[in-house]
Amino acid sequence: MELRHLRYFVAVAEEGSLTVAAQKRLHTAQPSLSRQIHDLERELGVQLLIRGPRGIELTAAGRVFLDHARVALLQVEAAGEAARRASQPARASFAIGFLTGYEMDWLPAVMEMLHAELPATEVVIHSQDSPDLAAGLIRGKIDLAFLRPEKQAPGLKFKPLRKDPLIVVMPRDHALAARSSIRPQDIAGETFIGVSAIRAPTLHAVIGEYAKRTGIALKPDHQAENIAMAISLVASTGSICLMPLYAKNLLPKTIVSRPIQGAPPMVDLVLGYNEANTSPLLKFLLSKVEELKFRVSKNEGR
User: Fold this and answer.
1) Are strands 156-171 and 122-128 parallel, antiparallel or unpaired?
2) pLDDT category, 82, cuts 50, 70, 90?
3) Contacts of 145 (CB under 8 A, 6+ apart)
4) CB 30, CB 22: distance < 8 Å
5) What pairing do the DSSP bridges indicate for beta strands 240-244 and 192-195?
6) Contact 174, 258 (CB under 8 A)
7) pLDDT at 34
8) What region holds the HTH lysR-type domain (predicted)?
């Protein structure tokens, strides 16, 4: 088994199509890609992919293998990045990642702390989905990230920051917008926008667990890949969506939010880092987590 087999398999699994994976991701011919996948399945002795009505689908063995293949590819890239860093002279730079939207709350406090103690530090900012941030930490391209507690993230450590309640987001002229808060049963009867299990796995799981706990059926009529798409779908379809509280900072005037009655679903925000990262800047910030949380809470109270 070679690395190209893993890359080819992951591309097909994520694209859900041999044709798309071959043309857009791998820039190879589809027959060649099919042979590579067949060779991989023959070596493993199991079927990984099947052709379904919606395109390529993973078998049970394929789903398990996908998780391990992704981790293996990330670790190979991390090894290369570590080697490149070791060959370069040390420089005072620090890469921080934010789950898109959270930089509005946390970046000012982080920059204040860094500039107060280390004014010459070059800070690089990344704004991405949580799985991409975790991958960046594993690869060594990001030093510290504000993200969800991702699974399948070997070598990463997480420090809890806070729990955010989910809120109901809807068009300003929606019938439910006249209410000060929304009951769980009201959500079930509306056109609903779900979130991607791949791009937002933690949030997707939290919403599913809340539906199960409250006994409501939440079958998404649309699915959003990210928060910007969710807001666009709310505006264009007149639907509702469940989003973390911080999303209020990103809503246009045509979109409003309302709290959920009772015990709302909660989603964790954590500070993630790679335990193999020996950066003094990382060590400094990790020692200041409580101060960081205090600064953010103080700013939010203004």
Assistant:
1) unpaired
2) low
3) 96, 97, 98, 99, 126, 133, 134, 136, 137, 271, 272, 273
4) yes
5) parallel
6) no
7) 84
8) 1-59
pLDDT of the residue at 302: 46
The first and second tokens of residue 240, run together, are 């509702």
Cross-strand bridge partners of residue 56: 51
From CA 287, how far away is CA 229, in angstroms rounded? 36
Q: pLDDT digit string (tens) for 130-187? A: 999 999 999 889 999 999 999 878 899 999 999 999 999 999 999 999 999 999 999 9
CA distance 66 to 301: 44
- Among candidates 253, 196, 205, which has minimal Cα distance to 226? 196
Q: What does the pLDDT look like over 33-66, one tens digit per residue?
A: 888 888 888 888 888 888 776 678 888 888 888 8
**Run of H or E residues at 165:** strand 156-171
Please identify which residue in the block is written with the tokens 């709302």.
264
Q: Which helix (H) or strand (E) holds 71?
A: helix 60-86
197 Cβ neighbours under 8 A, 6+ residues apart:
204, 205
What are the CA-CA distances from residue 272 to residues 15, 250, 259 (Å)? 28, 23, 28
- What gap in Å lies between CA 264 and CA 261, rounded to an integer? 7
pLDDT at 203: 94
CA-closest candidate to residue 99, choices 54, 150, 151? 150
Average pLDDT, rounded, for the chain: 87
β pairing state of 192-195 and 222-224: parallel
Q: Give the tokens for residue 62.
A: 């394929």
Contact in structure between 136 and 97 (CB atoms under 8 Å): yes
- Structural domains of the chain ordered from first start: 3-84 (1.10.10.10), 93-302 (3.40.190.290)
Residue 32 has pLDDT above 90, yes or no: no
Region of residue 27 (phi > 0: left; psi between -120 and 50: alpha; otherwise: beta): left
Query: Is the separation of the CB atoms in 93 and 121 below 8 Å?
Result: yes
